[in-house]
Write a structure and sequence with these properties.
globular, 9 helices, eight-stranded mixed sheet, 211 residues, alpha/beta, 18% strand, Rossmann fold, binds adenosine-5'-triphosphate
């Protein structure tokens, strides 16, 4: 069973995340996509990050109603910071074997800062979508040569020596970011249509991002 794992800060989740998961599921035949909010993001400034439970709740609200979407609080049980390599090992141990990890090209470009990054590509296939400002090729060029050497190009994807795939996806990432939503809310402006209404209601009720 092909399973998508979608890790992120989800601070807050938005339509860009949801469309990416929906299209990836359709295009690559992923039976389910598990959204995994991280505990304390190791690569990001942790100021102005709401409680992990808030991000988990907002992600659950955002995913409601899509029978292929699931949300896992797994990383919230790890001691902070959370590492993707541990998450992938966990799902493998749970016998989720055909894993497709979904990410934007901005995340791929920083992959060499991730713990045990070389092992990530043994544990899962990767689907990478372009984000505004950085294409897949630019991100790929940022990857250490010793890692690139493990891949061979095969038409529209790359195959790792372990047999996993790196798929540069032509899914068009929407030009929406969590940063944009946080900035709008902070400035008292509307973020409607950038994230589902229940997420906006949650932000309002819990007074997130307004200071
Ligand atoms: P921030 O603006 O706070 O940096 P973000 O919008 O990038 O947040 P994250 O939760 O950090 O959201 O993203 C999780 C994953 O989703 C990352 O791999 C990121 O590249 C990807 N992603 C985020 N927004 C989009 C989008 N609009 N289209 C495609 N991928 C996205």
């Amino acid at each position: 069973m092909k399973t998508g794992i979608f890790g992120g800060t989800f601070n807050p989740p938005h339509i860009g995340h949801l469309r990416l998961a929906e299209e990836a599921s359709e295009r690559y035949g992923l039976v389910k996509i598990i959204f995994v909010p991280c505990h304390q993001p190791p690569h990001k400034d942790s100021s102005n990050v709401p409680a992990s439970s808030d991000r988990l709740n907002m992600t659950t609200l955002a995913c409601a109603g899509n029978h292929r979407f699931e949300v896992s609080g797994l990383e919230l049980n790890f001691a902070a910071p959370s590492y993707t390599v541990n998450t992938l090992k966990h799902f493998r141990a749970e016998r989720v074997n055909d894993i497709y990890f979904i990410m934007g090209s901005d995340s791929l470009s920083e992959i060499s800062t991730w713990k045990d990054y070389e092992n990530l590509f043994i544990l899962a296939n990767f689907i990478v979508v372009d984000r505004p400002g950085i294409s897949f090729s630019e991100a790929w060029n940022n990857i250490p040569i010793k890692l690139l050497k493990n891949f061979s190009q095969d038409h529209d994807h790359f195959t790792h020596t372990s047999g996993t795939l790196m798929i540069p996806s032509s899914i068009k990432g929407l030009d929406i970011s969590s940063t944009e939503i946080r900035t709008l809310v902070k400035n008292g402006l509307s973020a409607k249509y950038l994230t589902p209404d229940p997420v906006l209601d949650y932000i309002r009720e819990h007074n997130l991002y307004s200071f």
